[in-house]
Design goal:
Layout lengths: L1 E4 L7 H11 L1 H4 L6 E4 L11 H7 L11 H15 L7 H10 L3 H17 L7 H8 L4
Parallel strand pairs: 1-2
Length: 138
């Protein structure tokens, strides 16, 4: 069994117990094998006890942050999948990219924009939606 805990750094105090319990599943379920991946934004927060670390034996892999161009490409592809062609302009997408902290943030903004358009039965993202979501202008 492979288990992935995304944003594991959010678990803080509970993380040690969770990791230890998962890695000891074989003691309760004969033959159980567990592969555990922890994904964390801040790896320093992953302070596991020495007994848990002896079970876990973590290997750190670091990923560089996406450039604005990469964020644009990723969000553009998501727009192709999620919106009808021409629903969002290039200028609007660039604005979303410029205010996004990360991919998840950009996707959240796009989802909110899509919901507003859907609510108004609009096939296009309007600038007023951008103002409402990005700049909180009502």
């Amino acid at each position: 069994m492979i288990i992935v805990l995304d944003e594991a750094d959010c678990l803080k105090k509970e993380l040690d117990d969770i990791v230890k319990s998962l890695l000891k599943l074989h003691e309760e379920y004969y033959g159980a094998r567990v592969g555990l991946y922890l994904i964390a934004y801040d790896v320093k927060i992953l302070n596991l006890s020495s007994s848990t670390n002896s079970l876990f034996q973590p290997k750190e892999v670091f990923f560089n942050e996406y450039s604005k161009e990469q964020v644009y490409d990723i969000l553009s592809k998501r727009c192709d999948y999620g919106f009808v062609k021409g629903a969002i302009t290039e200028r609007q997408l660039k604005e979303v990219v410029n205010v996004s902290i990360n991919i998840r943030d950009g996707l959240s903004i796009l989802m909110s924009l899509g919901r507003l358009a859907e609510r108004d039965n609009s096939k296009k993202i309007k600038d007023e939606y951008l103002n409402k979501i990005i700049y909180k202008i009502v």
